[in-house]
Amino acid sequence: MPLSLTKIAYGCESLDILAQRIAMRAGAGEMQMTTRYLPKRHAEMVGGSLYWIIRHNLVARSPLIGFAAAEDGKHTIIRLEPVLIAVRPRAKRAHQGWRYLEEKDAPPDLGTGTGDVAALPAGLAGDLEALGLI
User: Fold this and answer.
1) Alpha-carbon distance 78 to 32, whole Å?
2) Which residues lie across from 60 on neighbouring strands?
């Protein structure tokens, strides 16, 4: 079972804004983010994803490609596929940096046939999820 990460999409008020930001930063088939430390459990993350938090809800994920050392030697680069896969919104408290997410705790992808659920605001979708309505 691959391990994943959660990260707040700082400054993004919606999934559309996050998608635009990822498209702008994508280059050579991947998007790169920097972090101060290499996750201790990075070997377990092969096949995992980075789950994005917007407005206190996990709303999407980007598959992890891997990790690399930054040129400054002090940071680590998180390499991601430059795509967003919408997931069923799930409430998640804010935190700094990133946190591990076990596969059993990860929300399912919103696949085809979900109707208008993907179009709902993350907060509303999270409330409906908590009520067991979606």
Assistant:
1) 6
2) 52, 86
Comparing CA positions, the residue from 77, 6, 3 lying closest to residue 46 is: 3
Rounded CA separation 67/89 (Å): 27
* Sequence-distant contacts of 61-70: CB under 8 A, at least 24 apart: 61/4, 61/85, 61/87, 61/106, 61/109, 62/22, 62/31, 64/4, 64/5, 65/30, 67/38, 67/39, 67/42, 70/34
Closest CA to 48 of 12, 85, 20, 75: 85
The tens digit of pLDDT for each residue in 80-128 reads 999 999 998 898 988 888 899 999 999 999 864 445 565 667 667 667 7
Q: Report the SS3 class of residue 23.
A: helix
- Output the pTM of the full model: 0.81
Contact in structure between 104 and 9 (CB atoms under 8 Å): no
- For 43-71, the pLDDT digits (tens) are 999 889 999 999 999 999 999 999 999 99
C-alpha distances (whole Å) from 120 to each of 10, 33, 80 are 20, 28, 26
